[in-house]
Amino acid sequence: xxxxxTLQRLLGMQKKVWNFKIxxxxxxxxxxxxxxxxxxxxxxxIGALIALPLTVYAMVLLFSYAEVxxxxxxxxxxxxxAFVSVRNFLRQAALDPDTADYKVAIKNIHTESxxxxxxxxxxxxxxxxxxxxxxxxDIAILAMGALVVGGFVFGSVPRAQTYNLSITTICYAGxxxxxxxxxxxxxxxxxxxxxxxxxxxxxxxxxxxxQRHLHAAKQKDAAETVRLLLHDYAEQSSDWLWEVNGxxxxxxxxxxxxxxxxxxxxxxxxxxxxxxxxxxxxxNQLAQSLASGKAFRDIHVPIKLGxxxxxxxxxxxxxxxxxxxxxxxxxxxxxxxxxxxxEARVAHLAHFDSLTDLPNRALFNQSLQRSIGRMKxxxxxxxxxLDLDHFKTIxxxxxxxxxxxxxxxxxxxxxxxIGIEDVVARLGGDEFAISLRNVGSYEDVMQVAANIIDKxxxxxxxxxxxxxxxxxxxxxxxxxxxxxxxxxxxxxxxxLYNAKENGRGCASLFERSMHExxxxxxxxxxxxxxxxxxxxxxxxxxPLVNIETNETIGYxxxxxxxxxxKGLIMPDVFIPVAEDTGLIVQLGEWVVRSALYEVAKWPxxxxxxxxxxxxxxxxxxxxxxxxxxxxxxxxxxxxLELEITESVLMNDxxxxxxxxxxxxxxxxxIALDDFGTGYSSLNYLRSFPFDKxxxxxxxxxxxxxxxxxxxxxxxxxxxxxxLGMVTTAEGxxxxxxxxxxxxxxxxxxxxxxxxxAMPAANVEGRVETASASAAGAEASEIGEQKSTKSKRCKTxxxxxxxxxx
Length: 805
What we know:
Largest sheet: 8 strands, mixed, barrel
Strand content: 15-25%
Number of domains: 4
Number of strands: 21
Distance between the termini: 111 Å
Helix content: 55-70%
Structural class: alpha/beta
Number of helices: 29
């Protein structure tokens, strides 16, 4: 099997050699042809010297055996052949292979091969064929010599070689057969075999000759391409080449390099490379890399160009030569200023707020931790946690664009009102933080906070309109409130919550009791979530009395929590927690269902009033809850009265008004609670036709002793009467208050004078029925299963809290 493969390869090689043609472009073909002419010019001279003794030897044989007539003819023939050969030789010698018409020159060689082969073959072949020269070894040697010399001389031009070998072989083969008859056939066959072998051998030499020159042509093209690319790279690329000698002085600076550094080539030559760059650690690194003589990559070095700081990236290595490595170092440089600026921008965004350009939370924490680490024993450091008051209202009413302008203005004011060593940061949303380094007393910190509050409280101009804002601040001081950055921020946040509880627009210092209060609130939140499942909530009812007839016309539902361990918990304790965590929505839905299931047991003339929180107004389940509860209990819609505070209308005014209209269209009555405590109460009366106005207890408290309270109540009752609304006075505790309210025109009253809030079982006229019991059980079951996600609600405490009754 191996021999077969070898034979196949051999035959394939022979076929490739015999059928070989130059398949290349015109330029490469011309290159090979001119190399053929050069080779033929060199070999033909040697061939002439070799052919001379053979010709002389042939003439000696001829003179030795041939007749005089044959000799005379041969001499004349040889003279003509010699003349032709000398002329061709001289022509080839005068031929310049680099400039001559190579196609004509190749054709001339073809012609020369034919003429020379005929001339030198016939000198002996004809006399031998006619018997003038006897057959001996000399004839065979001369025939083989003619084949070898002819193949050698014309071997660089395959067609000329074939012409020469073919003519020579035919002449001698014919002479052998003519001279010896059938006995010369074997000699002729042997001669033809030798001629074929010689032709194949020289064709193989030519095949290798062409392959060598084709490879050289490709190498030359590749080298030229590289040279052009390097030239183009050096002149037009954004990168450029540089080279320094053993002393690290610039050599052979390119025009591109000179343009990049804004210098003349003559100025750059013999200038130390490192002198181009700014004094820096990076330049020192470059100098060390050059001194080491080792290859280096991607060294970033600053350079001043046109008064602007730029950055270059350099790589380099020693130049290799035939004798080894040179002392010169060559490399490439690139301007990476844009990339550096982009990196700096990314790094900036990672540590600074994109809107205000203040440090962000991450950078503030790092800075705070470093400041704490540098504190001395007698030093103090304060962290101020700030939150803008009612910022959501600005976003909702004026848009987020206005909100962004306010945040920028606040950031600018904060930066202008702190010391050089202090740090202000935006933590996110409308929350900011300040670290005051090396503060004095607590009074100094509070004074700084008071100044900030005053500055932030100044209106911000947005599109020519003043926008009022405010800020609440929580303060924690190190080391008294902790020696860790995260701990200080957490304690400042707790103090901030306390500031909001105290009415906003103020500052509060952290105290340990605040942390306990926060922990208590968290416990309340966890217990309140469990209370819904354990049925620990209960509705109490406080009667609403008609001031004229002294009859009870309805009740207000007030929530109570019977904790399994702490006993009765009043709404003013757990309602704020429910509002902050979002549990108020779930509680409010439970109150609506439970109150309607309870009212179904009462006489038809009694109604129930339920308070709605702002969070409930934002819940998509409010109307479905009301409709389902009314349908399940069969209670007439007018027996349900929903009480809202002014804070509901302060946020999302238009959408809340539309929602109230939808609720009122069901037949449910709407009351405005705590009337008179807001700054735009009259405007709310204009925006929605309430069924009832409830006068806040702050006016009722001194109605029997202060004329201004009486005047306000008189005005409210008169206004309500004009608008077709009923007025209810809250917090009536004395008979003098009742008399004065009756005199001022109040229609309904409620308060301890008549009754405190009572359990449902104490409601007069209440009837326990099987259906009602089932409905109450269903309400309880729904209350257990209902669950919603908690949200932080930033609405005023007083306006949100349920009345304790």
